[in-house]
Amino acid sequence: MPGMSDFRRPPPVLDMTPEGEFREPPKPGGLDAFLARLGGVAVLIAAMAGGLILAALAIFFIGLLLPAMLGAAAVAAVALWWRRRRLRRMGIEPGAIRIVVRR
């Protein structure tokens, strides 16, 4: 089994205290620093993409609700107009429009 162990590589040296903690933190190499910076940029890009997706969903739902709101407002306007017209035909001059909200 030639690939199981590599006798040419020396074993790693662990400089530890008797409590099991490292004496000084290992220094990151150039590749580690680059990968950490690249990972930070990737997280930032993912967060920005998530924000854009949320904004797009909000605009989409507003686009869906806007026609429904305009349609409901048109139906309400026609209903109010029809009631005022009917009152005028009966000889009653309608007063100000009062809107009652019941809870």
Please describe what this structure looks like:
- The chain has 103 residues and is mainly α.
- It contains one helix and no strands.
- It has one helix spanning 30-89.
- The protein is rod-shaped, with a radius of gyration of 36 Å.
- The chain starts with 29 loop residues before the first helix and ends in a 14-residue tail after the last helix.
> How many β-strand stretches?
0
Low-confidence stretches: none
Q: Approximately how much beta-strand content do the residues carry?
A: under 5%
Summarize the amount of helix as a percent range: 55-70%
Order of helices and strands: H
How far is the N terminus from the C terminus? Answer: 81 Å
The computed structural class is: mainly alpha
Mean pLDDT score, rounded? 86
Shape: rod-shaped
H/I helix tally? 1
Radius of gyration: 36 Å
Q: What's the main sheet like?
A: none
List the helices and strands and how they pair.
Blueprint: H1 30-89
